[in-house]
Amino acid sequence: MTYEFPPSFLWGAATAAYQIEGAWNEDGKGESIWDRFSHTPGKITDGDTGDIACDHYHRFQDDVSLMRSLGLKAYRFSTSWPRVLPGGRGPVNLPGLDFYDRLVDSLLAVNIEPFLTLYHWDLPQALQDEGGWENRTTCYAFADYAALMVKRLGDRVKYWTTFNEPGVVAFDGNLYGQHAPGNKDPKIAYQIVHNLLVAHGLAVQAIRAINSNLQVGIVLDIWNQEPASDAPEDVAVAEQAWQNYQTIFLHPLFRGHYHAAAYAAAGENMPKIQDGDLARIAQKLDYLGINNYSRILYNAQGQVAPVPGSEYTEMGWEVCAPALRRLLNRINQEYRLPPIYITENGAAFKDEVGPNGKIHDARRLDYLKQHFIQVHHAMQDGVDVRGYFVWSLLDNFEWAHGFSKRFGIVRVDYETQERIVKDSGEWYSRVIKSNCVEE
Ligand code: IFM
Predict the structure, then answer these.
(1) Which protein residue's CA is at the shortest distance from atom 4 of ligand 1?
(2) pLDDT tens track for 39-53
């Protein structure tokens, strides 16, 4: 069976600044909350840090050549706020801005469409010292940072994402404490949910005020929350879980208000909302990015894990590609959405370098293939998916897991910084070239 994609389908790969750049304190870059967090003993597996990571800051030209050799049509990356504004606001660090300028020019020179994300978790520590995302002044600083970047790059970068996975920022960083800045406080976490949304809205306005022709969107991490059976008790628990978590962002962004379930889940931790905030948040968007890796299954007793008979990745995430199709159909039916890009999807597996130097990562290749097919099905169902970005171009710093999880379609040897294209990368390159997936 052959699944053919539309000629304009944008095949890409994604990364994020802190996970690949390194050069954490070079050329005037300021400290980020992830620098501070990873330098704090006990926070990251094996004491790893992003100080060097994939050394992309120094090797970006080679990495762009690699992208070209793979035939990527688009590259999704993030800019490091403290690299361009070391204090979060105020004096601009020109070498930092110049780095992104050169990166964008290198991409365009080989016809790779840059997809720029303004915030992939590395808040300037200087702003954290003033309360970070809990403090509303950070929202205004973010809009100013967005404006600065658009003024410099908006003549060449067409696609602008405000936030990557605001739910992870709010909850993993401020409720569970596994991510920077490491808070464990529901009141802070829920206020940050709201402040991130306000910052998103302000940034969309700021970007459009400078250039109304740009494509502006946000990226949400959405996993379908599914019942283990048709039994009404299982369905009710799965539905409640969906409403408590997924609607927190989807409702205000696409319906202009919080879902009643989100209020109920927040309880006494419901954030302070100022007049005009909901309208500010619900700006019309040009695209929605979906980061999807798995699903969560529920029965009447709660989450079912592990799911009997299912395959799991190294992250402990169930492999269940059909859930992506169901998810896309669900959100497409329930919200009036702009075009969708799958902005992240991929899998961490233990890779072995074979005696011939090759990496036969059959499980990752199969994971990607199954997800491409389900995206194709969803498009046939009527969901407007315009592109797909594999996570990740390179093995990289997987946050609290450090370098212990490898998601790349290209292996990185962290001792030598050698890059080796895995079988999945070579296969992906053929998919892009033919614009087809063969089953
Ligand atoms: O590595 C992360 C990425 O930064 C955000 N989305 C999920 C990926 C895998 O955990």
Answers:
(1) 16
(2) 999 999 999 999 999
- Angle formed at CA 439 by CA 346 and CA 370, multiple of 5 degrees: 25
Q: Where are the beta strands (DSSP E) in 317-409?
A: 340-344, 385-391
Contacts of 428 (CB under 8 A, 6+ apart): 11, 70, 368, 390, 409
Q: At what angle do helices 362-381 and 423-434 cross, to 10 degrees?
A: 30
Q: d(Cα 376, Cα 370) in Å, to the nearest integer?
A: 10
Question: For this structure, is 233 an active site residue?
Answer: no
Residue 263: predicted pLDDT: 85
Q: How many other β-carbons are positioned within 10 Å of the β-carbon of residue 156?
A: 13
Residue whose token pair is 């970006």: 60
Token pair 């690949």 is at which residue? Answer: 20
User: From the candidates 21, 134, 344, 398, which is the catalytic residue?
Assistant: 344
Cis status of the peptide bond prior to 306, with omega within 30 of 0: yes
Low-confidence residues of the chain: pLDDT under 50: none
Instruction: Provide, for the chain, the percentages of residues in helix, strand and coil under a 3-state DSSP scheme, each rounded to the nearest 5.
Output: 45, 20, 40
Q: How far is CA 112 from CA 4, 107, 108, 150, 407, in A?
A: 21, 5, 5, 19, 21
CB-side neighbour CA atoms (13 Å) of 274: 8
Tokens of 230: 């048709």
- Residue 168: closest CA among 107, 119, 128: 119
Number of Cβ within 10 Å of residue 227's Cβ equals 20
Q: What is the DSSP letter of 75?
A: E
Q: Is 342 in contact with 385 (CB distance < 8 Å)?
A: yes
Within 13 Å, how many C-alpha atoms sit on residue 291's CB side? 20
Give pTM, 2 decimals.
0.98
Ligand 1 centroid distance, CA of 172 (Å) = 12
* Contact (Cβ atoms closer than 8 angstroms) between residue 218 and residue 288: yes
**What pLDDT does 131 receive?**
98
Q: Of ligand 1's atoms, which has the minimum distance to the CA of residue 396?
A: 1
Q: How far is Cα 351 from Cα 360, in angstroms, rounded to an integer? A: 8
- For this structure, is 165 an active site residue? yes
Considering all CA atoms of the chain, what is the largest pairwise distance in Å, rounded to the nearest integer? Answer: 64
Q: Which domains does the chain have, with CATH numbers?
A: 2-438 (3.20.20.80)
How do residues 222-231 score in pLDDT, each as one tens digit? 999 999 999 9
Q: What are phi and psi of 152, to 5 degrees?
A: -85, -35
Atom of ligand 1 nearest to the CA of 346: 9
Rounded Cα distance between 332 and 356, Å, is: 46
Helix (H) or strand (E) holding 179: none
pLDDT for 139: 99
Q: Please give the backbone phi and psi of residue 12, each rounded to the nearest 5 degrees, phi first.
A: -145, -170
